[in-house]
Every structure is written in structure tokens, then in C-alpha cells.
Amino acid sequence: MRSCIAFFLSAFCLTVMSAQDSLQQPDLKYLEDQFYVGLTYNFIANKPQGVNQRSLSYGLQFGFIKDLPLNTERNFGLGLGLGYGYNSYYTNLQVVELEDGFRYQLLDSDLGVKRNKVETHLVEVPFEIRFRNSTPSEYRFWRLYLGAKLGYVLGGRAKTVTADFKDSFYVTDIERFRYGVMANFGYNTFNIHVYYSFNNLFKDGLTLDTGEDLTFTPLRIGLIFYIL
To answer: Which region is the signal sequence (predicted)?
Structure first.
């Protein structure tokens, strides 16, 4: 009986020790940075004369990126993902809904406007070329991810709020297909995110009520966080 107990105890100890050794061994096929969450401040480049930003124009993004290492050290590779993005643009550009479309004009300062914005909800497909100095056992490392992002606008809405009324409606003049370049750089948890759109937020050929072209190019700068 004692021999059986000793045998099982020995076998159990060997199993535990083997499990501990396996846990301590680095994973040579590790993957990094497959989930992301980002928060940005949204700038507007190439905006029409007289259009100014107001309040806090912000963006939120999150999603999954498949990590695809291309070398043995797994510190160089690609990333291809799918995510969601929300972006708001607070300006003095007012969108007025008409029976046959929309009119774009600068806000009248006498209206006492509290909030005036255009917002979009998107499905996004990020593609990255990934450089990092990670190792199988080191979870804090520098990263530089360069790439592009495609997007499709699920819905765009304009909203104006004054002391007397509130108006909100969908804007079909927003260009649904989005594309631009991006860069993510940082160490460990905190990383800088920059995205510049290659196309206008609104469809081509639109003008303000003054006749000036309605140019409105998004530029987003903020923080992005990667996990797992």
C-alpha cells in the first residue's frame, strides 16, 4: 500500500514539475496585438473658408487584427483586421435638410447654437505592416505599425441643437467608401495613432450656399491600445 502511495505521489510530483516547466518555456509561435481600442481627436483638413471646428470632435475605434508574423523572430509581419469606428465633427457648418436634398451653410451666430455636428458610423478594415522588438518572453516592446484603412459608412447623421429647437437627420451626401493611410507608434500600453483620409467626407461636386466647394478631409490623431 505504501509502495502504491509513494508511486502515485511520485507520479503526481513529476506531472506538476513537467507542467511547470512547460509553462515556463516561451511560446516560439506567439502572436501579439490582435485586439485594439483607440480614441482620437478629429481634425478637418482642407476645409472651406469660414468653417471652424468647435467643441471636442472625437473618434472611437475598436476591433480585431490577425497577427501574421513573416520571420522566425516574429518581430516583423503583417496585420489584417475588421473593426468598428465612430467619428464626430463639431463645426459651424450647418447641414439643412430640404425636400430634394441638403443645403450646406455657415451657422448664423444669432441662433444661439449649443451643438452642431456631423457623425459617422463605419465598418473598417485595417491593414498593417508591423515592426516591433518583441520576444517570446517579453511583453513590453516598441512597435511601429504602418498601413492603410478601408471603411464603409453604415450611417451618417447631422445634428443641430439650439435653445429653441433640435434637428437631427441622416445625411446621404456622405461618401460611404472611405480610404486613407495610418501609422501607430509607441511602447507597451500607450501608442500614438495617426490616420489621414485620402478622400473627402462628403461626395464630390457639393458646394456651400456661397458656391465654394465643400471640401472636408478627416485627419485623426490620438491613442491606440493593443492587447493579446
So the answer is: 1-19
In tens, the pLDDT along 19-58 reads: 444 445 667 788 999 999 999 999 999 999 999 998 899 9
> Measured between alpha carbons, how far is residue 48 from residues 94, 156, 214 in Å?
13, 20, 6
**How many domains, the chain?**
1
The pTM (predicted TM-score) of the whole model is 0.85
* CA-angle at 152, arms to 148 and 155, nearest 5°: 140
Whole domain around residue 75: which residue ranges?
Answer: 33-133+141-227
- DSSP of 160-189: EEESS-EEEEE-TTB-SEEEEEEEEEEETT
**Cell numbers at residue 172, please?**
446621404
- Span of 119-128, 145-154, 157-166 with lowest mean pLDDT: 157-166
Q: How many CB atoms lie within 10 A of CB 132?
A: 19
Alpha-carbon distance of 160 to 89, in angstroms, equals: 12
pLDDT digits (tens, 9 = 90+) for 188-217: 988 999 999 999 999 999 999 999 999 999
CATH number at 105 reads 2.40.160.20
**Residues 223 and 190: beta-carbon distance below 8 Å:** yes
